[in-house]
Design goal:
The complex is a heterodimer of chains A (301) and B (183). Chain A contains two helices and 14 strands, in the order αβββββββββββββαβ. Chain A is mostly beta strands. Chain A has one domain: Beta Barrel (Porin), CATH 2.40.160.40. The termini of chain A are far apart. Chain B has 183 residues and is of the alpha+beta class. Helix content of chain B is 16%, strand content 52%. An eight-stranded antiparallel β-barrel of chain B has the order 1-2-3-5-6-7-8-9. In chain B, a hairpin with a 4-residue loop joins strand 1 and strand 2. The two termini of chain B are 30 Å apart. The chains are: A mainly beta (301), B alpha+beta (183). Chains A and B meet through helix 1 of A and strand 1, strand 2, strand 3, strand 4 and helix 2 of B.
């Protein structure tokens, strides 16, 4: 009897072992000859701006991103000005994803009624798997036109004096799931500068990053160093911003403190008047709202 | 020497006959659909791998989560980034059995009911799944179809408070595969 039972147990054991093994084999056979796919990194940043500056992200193809940028007045402006709440600079921007590698944008800024138009082109995409690329690289370029009256109408003013340009190289890497870093060298050209000593061509080097605290909340920081002897007639400081990203479905809210009152490249890179140590900083927020214009084509069954 | 070669031949024959009973696809289709109060979410994956051993009924699936395509790009990003965390858990696997495989004659054209039972792994969590489906045998091919529903919480996929009332807590999965004889 005992022997019989033992035999039965042994038999059952053998069967279950072979079954498990066979299923593993089946899975192994399935994995065999599997073409390794390219695994592209997604969501390096949650929005097209790290805080005030461009991130490597563009709106997805066929999507329109509406960006409301709002900087209040200086925090150290006292109770009379409700610590800056009475004053604001606003930029409204529309960004459209033409293809996976091309994003275009237009914006209007309350600072000297400046219009800007820009393009962001993806040159390299971070990926692993069948292909390996450690970073994502974009090139960003814009043109800005201020449209308020010329400050000195008595002299000969040219339309071209209203124009300025910025070109940036955006190099970013997402490390694991929660940390993303970006390096941003920038070049700004202004057709018109205040004084002869001021340079028309201005170079800066900056960068930024984000650290995810949860699936939908991250802290972000951004810094741009303005090399000396370029902007001399007025004092311009290095731009530093620090804030939080909160993502809720179709919106990304960015709330931050910055010493840059300006909201587009030419201003925050070369006209940052605020100084952190004086409390001459600004509370600001960006609201990103994504609209799907062209649905992704899916073959129906 | 002679016995050795005999065994070799036998083993080869055996494995050959076993191989002839296996069916495979790399282009199966899985659709998921969730009908919430605000958001209807639909996604398709047409790169589903699956294999069936018709002799034993053993049945496996493998799905790369990044291959799910959504109508809205943002949904696809949120699916991968926030819900299934496809960087950490790149694929979903099913290991199970067609429990009534004896009733399915893969050599004879026709439509058969199939009972499928096994373990589904998604988002690092494994759960028991049982469903009914059909197999249609047609000119040596096996067309398998099945539907089942999973509850996101069972797989530790959390819906954030802000959208908890607008999206569904369950997801309907439809499977549609055409298996060819494996060589």
């Amino acid at each position: 009897m005992k022997r019989k039972l033992l035999l039965i147990f042994a038999f059952i054991g053998m069967i279950s072992v072979t079954t498990v093994k066979a299923q593993d084999d089946l899975m192994a056979m399935l994995n065999q000859g599997e073409k390794p796919s390219i695994d592209y990194t997604t969501a390096t940043f949650k929005s097209t701006h790290i805080i005030i500056g461009q991130s490597i992200e563009t709106a997805p193809t066929g999507n329109l991103n509406f960006v409301i940028t709002h900087h209040f007045g200086a925090l150290n402006s006292g109770y009379e000005n409700l610590f800056g709440l009475k004053q604001a600079a606003i930029r409204l921007g529309l960004e459209y994803g033409v293809t996976r590698w091309l994003g275009v944008a237009v914006g209007i800024n309350t600072d000297k009624n400046t219009w800007d138009g820009s393009a962001k082109i993806k040159l390299l995409r971070q990926c692993k798997g069948a292909k390996h690329m450690p970073v994502t690289v974009d090139i960003f370029g814009n043109t800005a036109i201020y449209t308020t009256k010329f400050t000195d109408p008595t002299r000969t003013n040219y339309f071209s004096s209203r124009l300025s340009y910025a070109v940036q190289l955006l190099v970013a890497r997402k490390f694991g799931n929660s940390l993303s870093l970006q390096i941003t060298p920038s070049y700004v050209h202004k057709n018109m500068v205040p004084m002869a000593d001021d340079k028309n061509d201005i170079f800066t080097l900056g960068g930024g990053g984000r650290l995810k605290l949860s699936q939908r909340v991250s802290i972000n920081a951004e810094y741009h160093h303005l090399f000396p002897k370029q902007v001399v007639s007025t004092k311009s400081y290095d731009s530093f911003s620090f804030g939080v990203d909160i993502e809720t479905g179709g919106h990304v809210f960015q709330i931050f403190l910055t010493n840059s009152y300006g909201e587009y490249e030419q201003t925050y890179l070369t006209e940052t008047r605020g100084k952190w140590s004086n409390g001459n900083i600004f509370l600001g927020f960006n609201i990103n709202r994504m609209f799907t214009i062209v649905n992704h084509k899916m073959a129906k069954e | 020497m002679r016995t050795n070669s005999l065994i070799l031949i036998l083993v080869t024959l055996l494995s050959f006959s076993a191989g002839a009973q296996k069916f495979i696809t790399k282009t199966g289709h899985i659709k998921f659909y969730s009908d919430g109060a605000v958001e209807k979410i639909e996604a398709h994956n047409r790169q589903v791998s699956s294999m069936l051993d018709a002799a034993t009924g053993q049945f496996v699936f493998k799905v790369l989560l990044k291959s799910f395509e959504f109508e809205k790009a943002l949904m696809q990003e949120h699916f991968n980034e926030n819900y299934v965390e496809s960087d950490k858990f790149p694929d979903s696997k099913f290991i199970g059995n067609v429990t009534n495989i004896k009733e399915i004659n893969v050599a004879k054209d026709g439509s058969y009911d199939a009972q499928v039972d096994g373990m589904l792994t998604l988002h690092g969590v494994t759960n028991h799944v049982k469903t009914k489906g059909t197999f249609e045998v047609k000119q040596g091919k096996l067309v398998g179809k099945a539907k089942f529903t999973i509850t996101l919480a069972d797989y530790k996929i959390t819906i954030p408070g802000a959208v908890v009332n607008s999206i569904s807590k369950t997801v309907d999965i439809s499977v549609d595969i055409t298996l060819d004889k494996a060589n």
